[in-house]
Amino acid sequence: MKSFSGNTVIIPTPGYCSRKFGRAKTLLIIAILFFSPGIYASHNYPLSLPEQDLNWQLDKTVNGVEFFYALSACKGSDAVFLKLNNKNKYPVEVSWKETFQTQVEKDAKGNGDKKKMIIQSGETFETDCINPIHKELVVLASKAVPTYVAVISKFSYKDVAVTNAN
To answer: Which CATH class is domain 57-164?
Structure first.
């Protein structure tokens, strides 16, 4: 203890702090680690994510393959999600181009590239914004029509080809 003009000041030593606040520090560290999202992500614990409820529309069926699409938002942009269902008893190779109806155009061709996939017998390939397994099945409006900020109101598969992959 030191005294300055009649006032008494207590200066705690490091041992005093660690004994008094040691338990609180330990509990705080445990709580931070327990509630840390990084801990859950590094151990692959399932985190609760909102499911995206997509309204699938059948666009066409070609040689035993159903071609669906759904319009929704993804990452702050309009998006088209695609789903392909092979009802054949053999694997198929599918290819297609995409057209969009926007606020400016009725038949926007997008980037014009042809997409291709091989789908095994009885398989359905689909994706959504949360779980984009097949990246070619997600089309963001900003990528589909890069010349303006597109609001997509309709989608259509174009130049569809389905061939036996055996």
So the answer is: mainly beta
